[in-house]
Automatic annotation (TrEMBL):
Cited Pfam families: Rogdi_lz
Name this protein carries in UniProt: Protein rogdi homolog
Broad class of where this protein is predominantly found: cytoplasm
Organism in which the protein naturally occurs: Heterocephalus glaber (Naked mole rat)
Family: Belongs to the rogdi family.
Subcellular location field: Cytoplasmic vesicle, Secretory vesicle, Synaptic vesicle
One cellular-component annotation, GO: RAVE complex
Length: 329
């Protein structure tokens, strides 16, 4: 009876070991190939350098408009948003050289303008802001010789590139010997993909002095008025523009001065000290426009992370059920 049970156990172990060998030699490489294909698609959304395409970074114009009162954000991915693709050939590049995407939305007269995104850089900005105190129209535009790099997009792109690099160094000629080796690779790839996703989904929390000291304030011609701050960032699949209007607190003010901490979006009433002045945010204008290719990238990240986790689950089963192990004495 015991001999029969041991024979059955040995047969089961042999089957499991054969399945594990198939996992290491075939299924792992099939999943890695699938991951590479998905991430190459993601890299095309970011127009990764060295991706094999000679096309320049696509240029996209985003027409922004504020919906509602001061301090109310405008969400531009509602049904009112319209999308239009226009192919615009560039000299010597062919018809696929440049793509232009125009987004429009409901708008009031408070904030209007256009931001031009080229790859990971804002190459142009043309924004009109109606000041609430006197209805004066203020025009904000980038200097022609300047571009503003969106660090979030650049970082996300670099993490995708690193994930592709890790996968490419385990091609079909490489023989995985243990499940632990697979786990180590998947952990490294998932770390890069998680970082890429987090850079897009988690904007930096900045203090008002940090925004004031940002190089973005020096991007404009004419110079940005001293009572305005501007911030631009990515949140999920949206490009966000925030304009803060400020007023100086008088030395004899009875307000309890309490500097605001870091935040993605500051509210009216937030205070800070800049130079010798104490300032308070009086109005906040925020607009958002959806960038469809960022949405695609986030979907690719999610699918890739799911594939990695599925492969990890198979490679992380109890060791004696996957990897050959010595019979217990």
């Amino acid at each position: 009876m015991m001999a029969t049970a041991m024979a059955a156990t040995g047969a089961e172990r042999a089957v499991l070991e054969e399945e594990f060998r198939w996992l290491l030699h075939s299924e792992v490489h099939a999943v890695l190939k699938q991951l590479q294909d998905i991430l190459k698609e993601a890299s095309l959304r970011f127009t990764l350098p060295g991706s094999g395409t000679e096309s320049p970074a696509k240029q996209e114009n985003f027409i922004l408009g504020s919906c509602g009162e001061v301090g109310v954000q405008c969400i531009l991915d509602q049904p009112a948003v319209s999308q239009q693709w226009e192919e615009q050939p560039m000299a010597g590049r062919g018809a696929s050289g440049r793509s232009r995407l125009t987004l429009t939305c409901c708008s009031t007269d408070q904030v209007k303008g256009v931001l031009t995104l080229q790859g990971d850089a804002l190459s142009q900005a043309d924004v009109n802001l109606k000041m609430p105190r006197n209805n004066q129209l203020l025009h904000l535009a980038f200097r022609e010789d300047k571009q503003w790099k969106l660090q979030q997009i650049q970082d996300a792109r670099n993490h995708v590139s690193q994930a592709i690099y890790l996968l490419a160094h385990r091609d079909e000629s490489y023989q995985f010997k243990t499940g632990a080796e697979v786990l180590k690779l998947m952990d490294a790839v998932m770390l890069q993909l998680t970082r890429a996703r987090n850079r897009l989904t988690t904007p930096a929390t900045l203090t008002l002095p940090e925004i004031a000291a940002s190089g973005l304030t020096r991007m404009f011609a004419p110079t940005l008025p001293s009572d305005l701050l501007v911030n631009v960032y990515i949140n999920l699949n949206k490009l966000c523009l925030t304009v803060y209007q400020l007023h100086a607190l008088q030395p004899n003010s009875t307000k309890n001065f309490r500097p605001a901490g870091g935040a993605v979006l500051h509210s009216p009433g937030a205070m800070f000290e800049w130079g010798s002045q104490r300032l308070e945010v009086s109005h906040v204008h925020k607009v958002e426009c959806v960038i469809p290719w960022l949405n695609d990238a986030l979907v690719y990240f999610t699918v890739s992370l799911q594939l990695c986790q599925q492969l990890k689950d198979k490679a992380a089963r109890p060791r004696c059920h996957l990897e050959p192990c010595s019979p217990q004495h």
